[in-house]
Amino acid sequence: MLRRCLPSPRITTRRVRLLSTTASDRLVGYSPMAQGGPVNTNSTYIPTEKDVTTAGGVWAPTSAKRDALAEFKTAAAGKSLDEQATKEEKLDLYLVDGMVLIGKCTDGSLLNLSDPADKMNAVETWWMKEKVTEDTLLYQVQWKERLTDLSKKMDALLASMPADRCLRDIRDYMDAQDTLTDEDKKQETPLGERAFPLMTGLDGEELTQQKVTEENLEQAISRFRLIMAQEAAKMLIERWDHLTTPSDHDVDRAAVQGIDLTKQDKVLSHLQMQLVLESFIQGDCASRVESLWGMFNKEGDGLLDEDKMNMVCELAIEPVGKALERLHDESLAASPARKVLEEFSATPPSMGWREGRKDTAIKKNLKKMFRTTCKYHFRDEVEVNHRLRCIYAWANKKHQDNKIESVHVEEQGLTGRKRYVELKPKISLEEFREVQRIHFTHLDRVAQEFLKSYREDILIKQGKGRRRSEFYRESALFLTVVAIADFIITSL
Description:
Structural class: mainly alpha
Shape: globular
Number of strands: 8
Number of helices: 20
Distance between the termini: 63 Å
C-alpha cells in the first residue's frame, strides 16, 4: 500500500501548513504521500516515479510475495527459480507461459487470423444486421435480451473451436522473441509470425507438428477473445444498476443546474454498448478503456467524474480476469497436469485410479491458486485504488480550471434551507492517459499482469516445497545420526 509518512516533529506548524498549500494537489493533499525531498509544485506538472520516491511515497512498500521471491533467489546460489524446478514442476510454468503468449496477443497486439477470424466476424455480421440506421437507447429489458442473444451466439462459436483441441498443447506455446538474439530483435517481425511452439516431438514430424500447433494457437487466441466478450456481456447485464444509477457527483450537479434526475429514464446507448463488446472481441486494452469511457459519458463532452473514471478501469479489468479463469480451467481439463506432451499424441494417455486422483488434486490446487491471484492481484499488489486516486489528483484537468466549485443549493421543501455542495472537476480521457501511462501501465497489459502474478505464486509454492523437502531430509539425517550415536553409547 501507499505509505503515509508523518512529518518530522522538528517541522513547525507553519512549515507544514505551507507545504500543504503549495503541494497539496501534487503529492501531499490528495494522495497519502510523504513530504521530505524537493517536489515540483507547478500546477501543470505531473509527478514522475522519481518524484514519488523522493517525496517519500512508494507503491506497495511491503509485499510478502516479493520478499519470498527474493529469499528463494538468494538461496538459489546463482541458479534461477526456473532452473531449480523439476521436470514436472516446469509443466506448470510452461502452462503459464503459453497463456502469457495468448494474453500478450490480446492485450496489445492482433494476430492475422484466418479461419478463427472469420468465425469471430460472424458475430460482427450479426450485429450489423441488428443495427438500426441511427443510434437508439436501450432500456433494461431490451439490454438484457440483447446481451443474452449475443452470449448464445458466442456459445455456438465456442463450440466450433473445441477447447480440448486448441488448448491441448498450450504448454508448448512460446514467443520466439524470447529466444532471438539482439540482432534478430532489430527486425520487427509481426507477432503472428513470431509465435511458434517449443517442439517436443520427433525431428521428422517437426514441420507437421509446428503447423498444427500454430493453427491451434490461433484457435486458442480466438477462443479467449470470445470468452472475454462473453464475460463482458455478463458483466454489463449484472452491472445495469451501477451503469444507470447517477453518482453523487451527478446528483450534486443536477441540483445546481436544476435538473430532476428522478424523471429521467434509465437508458444506455445502443451504439456505445456495441463498441464496448467489439473492443473486447477485436481490440486491445487501450480500446476497451476508450469504449467504456464513451459508454459512461452520456453528456457527450468526453468528461467523467472520479467515480465513473474508477468504474471504467474496474470494468476494463474484471472481464479479463474472469476470462482467464475460464481459459485456465479449460487448459487444465484439456490434458493431464503431470504428463509431458511427447508421452502422448492425439489423445491423452489413460491413467490409473491413483494417478487420476493425484492429477485431480493438482488441478484443484492450481485452480484455487489462480482464482486467488485474479481476486487480489490488482487490489493488493498493484494498489489500483490508490493509483486511481493519485491519477485523478495529479491530472491537469481543464474542466473548472482544475478547481473545486463551492456552491449553495436550495433544498426542496418549505424550509428554504441551502445545502453546501462541492463540485469536483471532471477528467477527460486524454488527461487520464497522460498520468496513467506513467503510474498505471498495468492497465495496458491486464492479462499479462494476472499471469505474471500467477507465475510468481507458482514459483513461491515450488520454492516452499523444496525448502520443506530439504528440512525433512536434514531432520531425518539428524535423527539418524543421533540414533546411531545413542546406539553406540548404549552398547559400550
